[in-house]
Amino acid sequence: MNILSPVWDYRDEYYFVQIENIEINISAYSESELTLWAYDYKEDEELIDAYYENMQDLKKSINDLIGARVIVPTLESLLEVTKGEKR
């Protein structure tokens, strides 16, 4: 499986990246409360809007969606952005 190391940026309470036509947003409010949202701009459709209880499952969903191993921000980085709080 190919490895992708995209440049992630963050806004408000989530990290985001665009890989080809797909935008991916991820956030974490605790070690067991993570969110993933993905949107395909070419097809104009939401692909994923889901909650996860661990980073491993969130990473697997991203990897399956993109068809490659995508390097994502660490849980610690995600928690720094939200400060553990929902807005």
Task: Write a structural description.
The protein is of the alpha+beta class. Helix content is 23%, strand content 44%. A hairpin with a 2-residue loop joins strand 3 and strand 4. The protein is globular, with a radius of gyration of 12 Å.
Primary descriptors:
44% strand, five-stranded antiparallel β-sheet, two-stranded parallel ribbon, 87 residues
Give the topology.
Elements: E1 3-4, E2 9-11, E3 14-19, E4 22-30, E5 33-40, E6 45-52, H1 55-66, E7 69-70, H2 75-82
Parallel strand pairs: 1-7
Antiparallel strand pairs: 2-3, 3-4, 4-5, 5-6
Number of strands: 7
Q: Which oligomeric form is depicted? A: single chain
Number of domains: 1
Write the H/E string, N to C. Answer: EEEEEEHEH
Mean pLDDT: 94
Biggest sheet architecture? 5 strands, antiparallel
Distance between the terminal alpha carbons, to the nearest Å? Answer: 36 Å
Question: Numbering strands along the chain, what is their spatial order in the largest sheet?
Answer: 2-3-4-5-6
| Rg over CA atoms | 12 Å
Q: What fraction of residues sit in β-strands?
A: 35-45%
Coarse shape:
globular
